[in-house]
Design goal:
The protein is of the alpha/beta class. It has helices spanning 40-44, 46-55, 74-81, 116-124, 154-160, 171-185, 201-216, 218-227, 244-254, 295-318, 324-327, 331-345, 357-368, 377-381, 388-391, 393-402, 407-419, 437-444, 458-461, 468-483, 486-495; strands spanning 2-3, 19-20, 31-36, 63-68, 87-92, 98-103, 106-111, 130-133, 191-194, 233-236, 256-257, 262-264, 269-273, 289-291. The chain has 2 domains: 2-291, Rossmann fold, CATH 3.40.50; 295-495, N-(1-d-carboxylethyl)-l-norvaline Dehydrogenase, domain 2 (Orthogonal Bundle). The strands form 4 sheets. It has a 5-stranded parallel β-sheet, with helices on both faces. It has a 4-stranded mixed β-sheet with strand order 2-6-5-12, sandwiched between helices. Helix 10 (295-318) runs parallel beside helix 13 (357-368). The mean pLDDT is 95. Residues 32-284 form the Mannitol dehydrogenase N-terminal domain. GO terms for molecular function: mannitol-1-phosphate 5-dehydrogenase activity. This is Mannitol-1-phosphate 5-dehydrogenase.
Amino acid sequence: MTALNAETVASLAGGDLPLAVPEYDRTRLRAGIVHLGVGGFHRAHQAMYLDRLMNAGKALDWAICGVGVLPHDARMRDALMSQDGLYTLVLKHPDGTLEGRVIGSIVEFLLAPDDPEAVLERMASPEIRIVSLTVTEGGYNVNPVTGEFDAADPAVRADLEPGAAPATATTFGLVTEALRRRRDRGVPPFTVQSCDNIQGNGDVARRMFTAFARLKDPELAAWIEEHVPFPNSMVDRITPVTTDDDRAMVAERFGVDDAWPVVAEPFTQWVVEDRFAAGRPPYEEVGAQLVDDVEPYELMKLRLLNASHQALCYLGYLAGYRYAHEVCADETFVRFLRDYMAREGAPTLRPVPGVDLEGYQATLIERFANPHVRDTLARLCAESSDRIPKWLVPVIRANLAAGGEVHRSAAVVAAWARYDEAVDEQGEPIAIVDRLADRLKAAAARNRKDPLAFVRDEELFGDLATEPRFVEAYTAALDSLHTLGARATVENLVAG
């Protein structure tokens, strides 16, 4: 067993199962990007694209300084820095083939709660030209009904106090204060690049960060609006949470003792709006698409891939499955997913340049069915209050307006409501992981006596509880889930 670090990495290549390692001199790397929210997805996606460029001898001044915004990010910092920023990315192919590579594009890691001043000075330094984000859908403080910035969070309120330094280390406080320092020092602004799974993620980031800045310093907000780009992007790669089994697999198959490897599917996609303040890495040379308009791509992904994940996770979990590939080995559920995509999701989309939508849908089923990725339904069911309103509710609204079909989408919402009753069909408890868990469970507890209790939450669903076609389909699906169960409900939806 070989510990992974800068001294040992070269010796890891050429084993029984080949492990690719950085072919570039990491001592020549210089950070050009600060990334907030270093998790599995960032390390399987943006950091991987940069590693590809570096292996081609390019982007050596675009290495990553990771930043943890929350106290629990100390675990990631400790794991990565004990390995000099190195980690193993393992791609799991459907045929069982493993493809391993040590990624070397992360060179620093700072923890904001411990030393926000160090983070601010790093972001304010001229060599940092991009600040990128994977802070989850809920990390932008967007009110789901109004779309406006929600300043009620205690940490945000503390950062907004007159004269307050961002001691609470919110993303908003850090980014805006770093931009203020650059403005005051005559340093050009960095680009703020959201890599989160949100429609119009750059536009959302721009609205939220400028809204925060406006509450803190209106002149700074005006400067940000004029000078700071927030490019939109679409990101895609299924990246399950790393497990102890994954660590053991990396040790056994590659002979590497890695504190926090990443596993992912082979497929990856990144579509980026080409709008940056101070240059960017040549991402297009390693497979990313640089475009003028990201929206067709992101709507395709959100309404087909992400919404389909929601379509399989609650119904699949209630039916007794625990992994996405198990659901996609069941032809009845596959038919339901195909019908949702073809008859409810796809009709809400406009043409996507260079993409065959029918082929894309087929590829999604193949990706979901990969038995080696082992994507858990529990992961897909988590934080649904940040997902369903953004991914599935727009599909329902578009089809209601166009006279299209909504009964499959309505059944998915009903399955979420049934799932949030927190007891499965065998009477076993379900752990609800959601920032609104208590509120959701309280509403779901009234499902049987008041079938519309769950969807009357206007913050999540707006006025859907007053839409007759949705209400009819939703209440029928909820009743079927209670009386017949998830499998029979799906069978009837497919047959009907």
